[in-house]
Amino acid sequence: MSAFTINFLLYIMPGAAYFVMNTLIGLNSELAELSVLPLRIYSIVCLCIGPRAYFTGILIMKKKTMYLTPSALFRFLGLILFLSTLSNTRLSGANLGITSLLLGFVLEAIFVVAAVTFLRYKPKLCSRTKHSVEDDSTGTEAMPLSNTKSQP
């Protein structure tokens, strides 16, 4: 959360990014003006990188790294898709690149969260399937517990 606070203070507050670019770094005013919007977009990246890193750590701790393999592929395909789609909009240059990068990170974070969610509910899904197979293998149908009448 501290990374977001620093990014917010430097890039989203009016005039702060321009001051840093122009005065501290020494860029000319035209280049500093062009750099402000990509930096504002980039300041949001930490909001999706943090949860992605947390859930990636959970998968690594559980030694389920095979579920992380497709996430990089999803990010790469997302980048290509977003670049081709967003190029038809008014975005160009650094704005287009950083927006596509942000959307690729968001897509990868969604995939990692979905993998953790799948692993959490996988035992419950497998146990339901196992019980239904066992009931079917005995050849008897499961009888309801309520509204049962005893036969003479």
UniProtKB/TrEMBL annotation:
Q: List the signal peptide residues.
A: none
The entry's family comment says: Belongs to the ANKH family.
Keywords linked to the UniProt accession: Membrane, Transmembrane, Transmembrane helix, Transport
Know the name of this protein?
Answer: ANKH
User: What GO molecular function annotation could you give as one example from this UniProt entry?
Assistant: inorganic diphosphate transmembrane transporter activity
GO terms under cellular component: plasma membrane
Query: Could you tell me the Gene Ontology terms of the biological process aspect for this record?
Result: phosphate ion transmembrane transport
Traced from the root, the source organism's taxonomic lineage reads: Eukaryota, Metazoa, Spiralia, Lophotrochozoa, Bryozoa
Tell me the segments the record calls region Disordered.
Answer: 131-152
Membrane topology, as annotated = Multi-pass membrane protein
Transmembrane segment boundaries: 7-27, 39-60, 72-91, 97-121
Cell compartment(s), UniProt: Membrane
Q: Report the superkingdom from the record.
A: Eukaryota
